[in-house]
Amino acid sequence: MTKQRNIFEERLTIQPYEYPHLLPFTKAIFSAFWYSDHFTYSRDVRDFKIELTPNERQVVERCMLAIGVVENKVKTFWGRLEQRMPKTEISDVGFVFSGNEVVHRQTYERLLNELDLQDKFDEVLDIPCMQGRTQYLKKYLQGVNSRSNKEFTKSLILFTLLIENCSLFSQFLIVSAFGKYKNVLKNFSKVINATAREEILHGKFGAELINIIKEENPEWFDDEMEQKIRRAIRKAYRAEVEVLEWIFEGGELDFISKDEVEEFLKSRLNDSLNQIDYADEYEIDESLLEKSDYLERMLLATKDFDFFDGKASDYNTGKAFTEDELWD
Prior knowledge:
The protein is mainly alpha-helical.
C-alpha cells in the first residue's frame, strides 16, 4: 500500500523524491544565474542626471527605494522553508531562492549607490505608505513561525502570491517603461527584466506548494480561508496604491499614467488568485493594459516555462540580457 504523502512530514532520506516536479525550479534559476556585475550603469546614471525631468527623476528614485525596501526583507522566508516542509526537493529550491534574493538585494543596493540614494534608504522607512507596505510584508514573513500548518499555509499564500507575484511589479513596470517608451535607463530595465522573471518563478513555485497542500488538505481551503485571502488582497491593494500615489506625487509620466499602473496591479492580483483556482477579485479595463502588454508578455513566457521538457527556452542567460529584448 502506497503511503499517503504529507508535505509537512519530515523525510530523513534524500530519495525517493515525493515531489520531483519541483526540482526543475533550481535548474531554472541556475540556468540564468547572474549578479550585479553583469551590467554597467554609467550610461543609465547619465540618463538619470541629464535626460530625465525633475519629476521623472523623482519617480525613478522612489521606485528604486520602494524596490530596495522589499528586496532587503524577503530572503529570510525562503531560507526557512525547510523548517515547515522538510523535504530535500523543497528545501533545495528554498535555499536557491534565498540566494537569488541576495543577488536582487545586492543589485538594487548597487543601483541606489550609483544614483547617490544610499542615504535616503533609511529615510524612506519613515514614509507612511512605505510603513504600510513593510508592515504587511513583515506579517507574512513571520508566518513561517505560525503554530499550525494551516496558518502557515495562509502566510505562504499571501507571501508568494502578493509579495513575490505582485508587490514590486508596479515599480518594475514604471522603471522598464523608461526604456520602452523613452529609450533611457536601458540597463536598469534589463535588471528589472531579470529580477521580474525570477520573482515570477518564485511565485509559481509558491503556487505549486499551495496546490500540493490543497490536494493533501482540501478541508483547509474552505470559504473562511478564501475570504481571509480576499480581505488580505484588498488590503494589500490599498497599501500598494498608496505607494503609487507617493511615487507619482510630483505628477504622472507622459508615457504611462498612474491609472495604467494601477490596472496592471489589479491584473497581477487577479493572476495570483487564478494560480490557486480562485476567481478574479477585480474587473479589468483592458484598454488600460495596453502600455504594460510588453512586460506581461515577457512574464507570461517565464510563467509558461516547460519544466517537463527541462529547457528554459525563454529564461536563460543569453536571452535574458539581450540588449533589445524588452523593446521588440
